[in-house]
Predict the 3D structure of the following.
Amino acid sequence: MGYSRAMRIGVMVFPGSCDDRDAARAVATLGHEPVALWHADGDLRGVDAVVLPGGFSYGDYLRAGAIARFAPAVRALVDFAGSGGRVLGICNGFQVLCEAGLLPGALTRNARLRFVHRPQHLRLEAGPDRNRVVQIPVKHGEGRYVHDDPAALRAAGQVFARYCAADGTSTPDANPNGSVDDIAGVTNAPGNVIGLMPHPEHAVDPLLGSTDGRLVLLHAFGATVAV
C-alpha cells in the first residue's frame, strides 16, 4: 500500500523510551504527522502506521522488551499488524516486536558484551532499494540477532538489512554485535512489520551526517513520497 498524502504515524511511548522525540521529529521531517501513543492506552487513534522507538522500556527489567509486550498498546498493535498495518520497531522497539511474537528471532547481549555506538553501513535486502548500501548509526548493548535458521529467513525474503562494509561486502569487523548472518533487521512474513537495530530516525538531516534514514523510514511506512 502506498500513500501520496500526509500520513498520521503513531510513535509509541513506554516508561523508559528515550528516542520517541527523535522519531516524532523524523516523521515530521518527512512531512507526515507524528501522533503520540501511550503504552497504557489500547486505542491507536486511527493512525496509518506505528513506530516503536528506541530506549529501555520498563527499564529493560527481566529482558529487553519482555514487559512491554504486555502493554495494552502492544496488544492493540498485534491486531493492527494482523490487519496489514505498517509497523516499524527501532532498537528497543525491535526487541519488543520479537518478544510480542510479531517478528521472528530474538535479540541478545552483544558478542563482546560491550555497548556499541558508531556509524554503521547496511545493505538493504528488501524493497525497491535492494542491495543499496546506506549509513545509519547503531547504539545498543543487546543487539545481537539470533535465529535458528537464517537461511530460511533469507529464502523467505524476511531479511530486511544486513551489516556490511562501505563497499557492501560482509566482513567480521563490519558486524558490530555478532548477529547471525550479519542480520541487522527482519520483517514478518507479509512484510508489513519491520524491526532493525540501527536508528534511521538519527539519519534524516545532513547535520547528523547522513540522510539515509529517510529511505528506510519511507519504505517502512509505505509512503511513496516525502510530502
Summary: Residues 72-82 form the longest helix (11 residues). Residues 106 and 146 are 5 Å apart (CA to CA).
